[in-house]
Amino acid sequence: MDNWVVAMMLGASLLLGGVALIAFLWGLKNGQFDDEEKFLNAVKFDNEEDLNDAINQEKKKEELRKKVYKPE
Hints:
Largest sheet: none
Protein name: Cbb3-type cytochrome oxidase assembly protein CcoS
Keywords: Membrane, Transmembrane, Transmembrane helix
Number of strands: 0
Transmembrane segments: 6-28
Structural class: mainly alpha
Radius of gyration: 25 Å
Organism: Sulfurimonas marina
Strand content: under 5%
Distance between the termini: 53 Å
Pfam family, one: FixS
């Protein structure tokens, strides 16, 4: 490739990377990625039955892992 093609590709890559970085920093500054109520709302709607189901599923997964795992 010619030098001007490499220089143009490098310039375009740096420009696009700079734009992406500025957009990311702008989003951080404006709270775009903040989700303060995510965990609070999750706790509100969980009940004891759902938690017990999750525990039972984890136990079943562990039992399956023990059955399937056979070291040689």
